[in-house]
Structure formats: structure tokens, C-alpha cells
Specification:
- By secondary structure, the chain is α/β, with parallel strands linked by helices.
- It is 34% helix and 20% strand.
- It has 16 helices and 20 strands.
- The strands form five sheets. A seven-stranded mixed beta sheet has the order 7-6-15-16-17-14-18.
- β11 and β12 form a beta hairpin.
- The longest helix has 23 residues.
- The N and C termini lie close together (9 Å).
- The mean pLDDT is 93.
Length: 492
């Protein structure tokens, strides 16, 4: 039987392993860490459980369809429910807005709070829906770098509707065209951060991101985000996928234009197919030394990173929910600091995620587990000790003012993760959360493809390659791997 090796057990790596197993491969996943999941990991500390990585769960069908591939009911492994509240928003002047998942309610509430006409809001959301429906079959669900992807009616539809895709304007300019209220513009601008980009640079086509949240909804997986990893990991084990932990791959062996296996400290491991779930930058720099390097791809601007404080909080906050945003007073200043000055803004936008709202066992009784994150530049050798201390003070001051509380006195547990730690723990170049930034209209085309034309039997998945970062896109990259991988009989 043909053997595939997957390097890295991030969400895309596990999903790729499952799809290759279904296709008929024997599959081994080699992971440098002692646990599966990559960024989608968790820790427990003094009675609090914290998800370390992604905190937003949308499009759950991309997870459950992996179970359906094997005719396995997801429920024994994985369950979830839809949230009625998308997010709570707070501004420095005291303005608050709760975004509901029901579309009609959302439109009505936005109209009341921000003075926008229901017609303009509906038109904006419909435009976003149309963008997604036009582009998803071409840009997200297929290999963008294969000629056959463009020979379809989907391609012709997308090309004929190019003017409505808003690729020649920034997301900020697009939102200002639809809405006058600066707070509403900021609310929709924030979706640029879902792929680690700046709303002042990323193209307006990215307005389709809120469609995914508002149409498909936001969900909470029972047990927290980490259960997504563990459910797919356990499914993979049940289907015969092998995992080797604490097993760092040192090199991908290439002979006569073909990947023949990998080398690790335990020796050479032969494979008919190699899939790298590792960030594409260290894949080339460390594992493919001596091979032609895709300079343009490797020199792309990196996405934003994050500075995250995990706090055990010794009281409940009924005004907060699972997702909460405390906005900066100047988004332009914040993104200038991140992408141009490579530092932190003194008035950052603060995201607070509290899974104990939906999973009470994640914190002691009458306590909450706070995942407190601000957008940050990648690791370019900054003084992170100093920046962490400053950011901690800025965050606490902001939350104290908005929630009328002395937060410092309520913090019982603290764990911190900065871009340097993200880079070290996950091999993400410069700690970038999404690989390359989408800060230009050509960014989607410049992402590394899921294959390398000069090396057969080598494929790439995960957030640093096509179609991009975030759980849904990583799962779609695995789907592309399943389509691109030769049938095992082809190796006979």
C-alpha cells in the first residue's frame, strides 16, 4: 500500500491525513511537539482551562464532513451549538453594541444604534454574500494554481462580475462607501484581522468574511476549541493513521525531482507522498535546503501575530459573552503601529474570549477564564519583555474603564503568549498567525500553491499556503490535498 507522511499535526495536517487515509494511503503524521493540534492547543492551570489558539468557530460542516467520509457519526466525538450572540462591542466613549446572529435582528439593531438605513445594511450584506458565492468555488475550494480550475462556468461567472468583487478598493474605503458612522465602519473593518491583515490595505473583496460569520453563524464546540483537534485526532487513530510525536523532521528527501521521504533523528522514513503542514517558510529554509526557493512567496509581507494574556478572573461578568471586542479609538493608528512601525499601539483593540460562559467547568465556580488578545506585529527582534509589560497596563486600563472594575485585583492566574512564543511553539515564521498577509489585491494569487511543480509527490497544506489561514481555510486546504494526491494505485 502507498505510504504518505504528513509533517505537522496542525488542524490541516490531521484533516489531510484523514483524506489521504480515505483515499487508500497508509498515513504517518510526524509532529515535533508532544501533542497534536499546532496552534489549536490548550492548557489547564489552577482549575482554569484555556484554549491557546483560534477562538472563533464557523462553518462546522467542514469538520463534520470528515467524519462522514468514514460513515462515522460525529456526535460521540464532537458536538457543538450555534451562538445567539455573535459578539459584544465596546467603544471608549461608552457606546455598546451586541451583534445578534439572527440577520433580521442584526439589521434592525445596527439601524437603531448607528443610524444606517436598513436598506443600505441589507445591500451591503447581500453584496458580501454574492462575493462569496462567486469566488468560493474557484478561489477557496480548488487549487488556484492548476489550469483546470479556470476551465469552468464558475470562473466565467467570477470574471464577468469582477467590478462587484471590489478588488481595486480597500476594505476601509468600501465600508466608508456604504456607511457614514465611523463606529460601524470600524465594526466591519475588524474582519480584516480574521486573516491577519490591515483594513486600510486589504482589498474590499474581504468583506465576504462577515458573510461567513453572519450566514453560517458562530458556534461553540462542547469542551472548547481544543475538542476540534482532539476529535479529529481520535477519528484519525480509529481509522489507522499513525502519529509520531516528539519527532522533528530535519529534511525532505528529493531525488530526481521526486520527494522520496523524510529524515528525522531516528533515520530515513520512506514515503510515496510527503505533505508539509509546516509553515511554508521554514519548510523551504530548513527542510528543502538545496532546492529552488520561491523567493517572491518567501519575501511576502507576513500577517499580524498576537499578544495573548490568559487570565483566571475571580468573578462573573454578565455583560460579557463568549466573544467581546473593546475597540481602539483610532484603528488607523493601531494598524500603522502593527504593520509599519512593527510595534504595539498604546490604545489597542482588545478581544476577550470567555469559554466558561458556555462551558462552566472551564473555570472554578463564580470565576471566568479570560483569553485576552491584542493584534501584534510579527517577531522582528523587538523587546517583547518591555512590550508585554506596557501592553498589560494598557489592556487593564481600557478594561477597567469600560467595565468599571479593578481588574488587577481579580486576576488569580496568568499565562502569556507573545509572537516570539508563537513562532517557537508552532514554527510559524515570525509568529505570523496566517502566513502571508492579504494586504494587496494580488495576495491570494501570491500565496504558495498546494504543490510544487518541480518536485513530484510533495504537497503543502495549512494556513501559510492556498487558500489561507483560519480553521475553515485550513480544512479547505486539506480538501485540496485530497483532490491533488495521486491515487495509491498510481504508485504501483
Amino acid at each position: 500500500m502507498a505510504h504518505a507522511i504528513v509533517i505537522g499535526s496542525g488542524i490541516a495536517g490531521i484533516a489531510s491525513a484523514l483524506r489521504l487515509r480515505k483515499k487508500g494511503y497508509e498515513v504517518t503524521v510526524m509532529e515535533a511537539n508532544s501533542y497534536p493540534g499546532g496552534k489549536l492547543h490548550a492548557i489547564e492551570k489552577n482549575g482554569y482551562r484555556f484554549d491557546l489558539g483560534p477562538s472563533l468557530f464557523t462553518m462546522p460542516h467542514l469538520v463534520t464532513e470528515l467524519f462522514e467520509l468514514f460513515d462515522v457519526r460525529p456526535e460521540p466525538y464532537f458536538s457543538y451549538f450555534r451562538k445567539k450572540t455573535l459578539c459584544n462591542y465596546f467603544w471608549n466613549d461608552g457606546t455598546r453594541f451586541t451583534a445578534k446572529s439572527d440577520m433580521e435582528t442584526f439589521i434592525n439593531d445596527v439601524s437603531k444604534v448607528f443610524g444606517a438605513s436598513e436598506k443600505s445594511i441589507t445591500r451591503y450584506l447581500e453584496r458580501n454574500r454574492r462575493k462569496y458565492e462567486l469566488t468560493a468555488p474557484l478561489f477557496l475550494e480548488k487549487s488556484l494554481h492548476k489550469v483546470r480550475s479556470y476551465i469552468s462556468t464558475d470562473t466565467l461567472k467570477a470574471i464577468s462580475n469582477l467590478p462587484t468583487l471590489d478588488i481595486n478598493t480597500s476594505l476601509d474605503d468600501l465600508n466608508k462607501r456604504f456607511f457614514e458612522h465611523p463606529k460601524l465602519v470600524q465594526l466591519f473593518n475588524r474582519y480584516a484581522t480574521y486573516n491577519g491583515s490591515s483594513p486600510f490595505k486589504t482589498p474590499g473583496i474581504m468583506s465576504m468574511i462577515p458573510h461567513l460569520e453572519m450566514y453560517y453563524g458562530t458556534y461553540f464546540p462542547k469542551g472548547g476549541m481544543h475538542t476540534i483537534t482532539m476529535s479529529l485526532y481520535n477519528l484519525a487513530l480509529s481509522q489507522g493513521v499513525r502519529f509520531s510525536f516528539n519527532c522533528k523532521v530535519n529534511r525532505i528527501n528529493v531525488a530526481q525531482g521526486k520527494a522520496s521521504g523524510v529524515e528525522s533523528p531516528t533515520g530515513f522514513h520512506k514515503a510515496d507522498l510527503v505533505v508539509s503542514n509546516m509553515d511554508v517558510y521554514p519548510t523551504y529554509k530548513n527542510l528543502l535546503q538545496g532546492q529552488k526557493q520561491p523567493k517572491r512567496v518567501l519575501q511576502q509581507e507576513r500577517s499580524s501575530s498576537a499578544l495573548i494574556f490568559y487570565w483566571g478572573i475571580s468573578r462573573n461578568f454578565p455583560e460579557l459573552d463568549l466573544h467581546n471586542i473593546f475597540f481602539s479609538s483610532s484603528y488607523s493608528r493601531e494598524f500603522k503601529a502593527i504593520f509599519h512601525e512593527r510595534t504595539l499601539c498604546e490604545d489597542p483593540t482588545v478581544y476577550v474570549n470567555i469559554t466558561s460562559k458556555d462551558e462552566p467547568s472551564d473555570a472554578p465556580k463564580d470565576h471566568e477564564n479570560w483569553f485576552v488578545m491584542i493584534n501584534a506585529p510579527g517577531n522582528y527582534g523587538q523587546d517583547w519583555d518591555s512590550l508585554r509589560k506596557k501592553a498589560r497596563n494598557w489592556i487593564i486600563q481600557k478594561l477597567n474603564a469600560r467595565l468599571n472594575v479593578d481588574l488587577e485585583s481579580l486576576i488569580t492566574v496568568e499565562h502569556v503568549l507573545d509572537p516570539m512564543g508563537i513562532e517557537s511553539n508552532t514554527s510559524s515564521y515570525r509568529g505570523a498567525l496566517y502566513g502571508a498577509a492579504s494586504n494587496s489585491k494580488f495576495a491570494a494569487f501570491l500565496r504558495h500553491p498546494n504543490f510544487k511543480s518541480s518536485i513530484k509527490n510533495l504537497l503543502f497544506c495549512g494556513g501559510s499556503v492556498h487558500p489561507g489561514g483560519g480553521i475553515p481555510l485550513c480544512l479547505l486546504s486539506a480538501k485540496i490535498i485530497g483532490d491533488l494526491a495521486p491515487k495509491p494505485l498510481d504508485y504501483a
